Amino acid sequence: MDFSVINVDISRLSGATFWVLLFLTLGGCGSAEKVPSPNSDSQNVKADTIFLGGVVASMDSRVVGATAVAVVDHRIAAVGSDDEIRLWADGQTQVIELGGRLLAPGLIEGHGHFMSFGRAQQIIDLSDIQNWQQAVGRVAIAVDTAEAGEWIFGRGWHQEKWNRVPADAVDGVPLNQTLSRISPNNPVLLGHASGHAAFANDAALAAAGITDATVNPEGGTIVRDSAGRATGLLRETAQRLVAKAAAKDQAQRPPDEQRAELREQVLLAGEQALAHGITSFHDAGASFVTIDFLKEMEAADELPIRLYVMVRGESNDDLAANLPAYRMETEENDFLSVRSIKRQVDGALGAHGAWLLAPYTDLPDTDGLVLESLEDIEETARLAIEHGYQLNTHAIGDRANREILDLYERAFRQAEVDGKSLRWRIEHAQHIDPVDVPRFGQLGVIAAFQGIHSASDGPWIPSRLGVERTARTSYPWRDLIRSGALLANGTDVPVEPIDAMASLYATVSRRTSEGVSFFPEQALSREEALASYTINNAIAAFEEKVKGSVTPGKWADLVVLSQDFLTVPEADIPDIQIDMTIVGGQVRYQRD
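Predicted structure:
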């Protein structure tokens, strides 16, 4: 690779942090496109923007000790000292003084749900409620302004985070009677924070045709009380029964209204992502129809951030018919790429849906739920290899992780391919038997984890698994790195807030929301954590040639942090602010 200005003088690192490029087992990045020098004989190139007087966390071992960056068009032109980068400026160049702040690669959300994130901002937010009564109160306000029969939606409740639950709760979740009393004529559907359960009032159950005698769907549970009455709680696939009824109702609205709502979801999600330093987003699941809509927005230059989209919710027959036409590798200054498929073998631990090797400690009559059959996922694996797609499978429980590792290994062997070159992923990879941890590195399987989950789930995981099993299997990040595995970080938004600094803090501190250390020996170093949000996520999307580090020739996706994440006291990390987010050389967010 040719660099116009590149500072690799290690002697200058006294008092500075040495940023290590963490390509791990996948090798170095491919060459980025050459950027002309400002002193080129062939042309007098000047920067559109230069950043001066900062600390550059490049995530590239060849770019160390730098304080400034020059940007030409949508690419990083040079990285070096202030004096070197000033050579790129003329009277038309925008000069941004960093004043000692940290300039880092744009943060990459490694696993989230983009349209759901936007949708969550259009409906009732239940993420901060402390008890059931608060949920009922917010629904009551919505009922007051709703028309008769109009559906009411909410999301974000989590019973394990409440300060109390009603005495008649079943499996720790209230009965729906109070919700039905305040909303007798409006169907209500309230999604769990995890997305793996939902709560419905009687009007919503009736709209879906659910009665006390309705049989549980495969991979789901209609929770009932001791008398056999449906409580309103729907686990895993059971919630789809009501969701389908709601979708049918919503589909009757005028098409223009539906499209406007989708567009608003994209813009709302993008606005919040940019405010949190996110320049790229790994969207963990979109249908072909949704991808078509995103294509239209990209063509109109309306996508606010870059999307790496996983195909989700399509049958194997539809995948076989459509994968070739939908494959979109990363192109120049691209905002939409599609080259992966998302599958899901189990549910979430909080909803007792994670597939375990042994029964739940607090619900010993179950070891979890299988949401999509292994046979079906195995056929998807075959199609993925045939059509050049990455396969990313949701697996949370230790049984789920083992089964998917087994499935991947069989797929690699049968196709006679090197799994490392495919970069297949396990999404979440939360609870892993120690026997299976080394297999991630051996097979080249990427662990797409969410650091923030350890903080929010840590206080209640032992109630599900017991203390010994929690210690042995939960979030073994350090052990995964020792195995040679690549770790890709995110938030699973809207399951958790998109706050990358909160997730990074959890990743390096392993402190729970209650301030307790959650097996801190598995924490990552700060360099490893920042890599997991930048270069590692770029590698996990086959985009390391253009993203993930502050390297000349790569796209100018950058973030300015108010403080140096690598050196501030650990307790101050959550207070770091996103001062500026730059996508393709354009400032798309600036803090007041």
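Summary: The chain has 20 helices and 23 strands.
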